[in-house]
Amino acid sequence: MSTTQQNPAGPSSVTNLEQARERRARALLDRRDELARRWAQALSHNRPDADDLAYEIAVVEEGISKADPSTFDALFREWIVADASRLHEPGTMTGSCVMCDVARGGVA
Fold it and tell me: Which of 21, 24, 51, 89 is the most exposed place for a label (fewest CB within 10 A)?
């Protein structure tokens, strides 16, 4: 007689739970990246919503930290460098900034 306990829901429920966690983690990482992009643009163009976006980034980062501390630890320094690299002076037009595109007469 085996003493190993089986998951009553079956192995597929474990896989589904893992997939759901991975999707949630990916969604948080994608959300953080989008917010950071918007924050850098807002800060670079002296927009008042930069502070609100920074707060939203912190909230998402807290969620990432709680859900997967090792991922948070691995990415935190990379985020700082990436976020800083997106910043630019208001008069400097960059190809990766939507607000710069709009200022040049491009479509956002």
Answer: 89
DSSP class of residue 70?
H
In this predicted structure, the answer to whether residue 70 has a pLDDT above a threshold of 80 is: yes
Q: Which residues contact 89 (CB under 8 A, 6 or more apart)?
A: 44
Residue 41's closest CA among 104, 3, 75, 89? Answer: 89
Phi and psi for 85 in degrees, rounded to 5?
-70, -20
User: Rounded to an integer, what distance in angstroms lies between the CA atom of residue 23 and that of residue 77?
Assistant: 23
User: Tokens 């976020």 identify what position?
Assistant: 83
Flag whether pLDDT at 18 surpasses 60: yes
- Residue 50's pLDDT band (cuts 50, 70, 90): very high
Q: What is the pLDDT of the chain when averaged over all its residues?
A: 85
Please say whether the beta carbons of 87 and 43 come within 8 A. yes
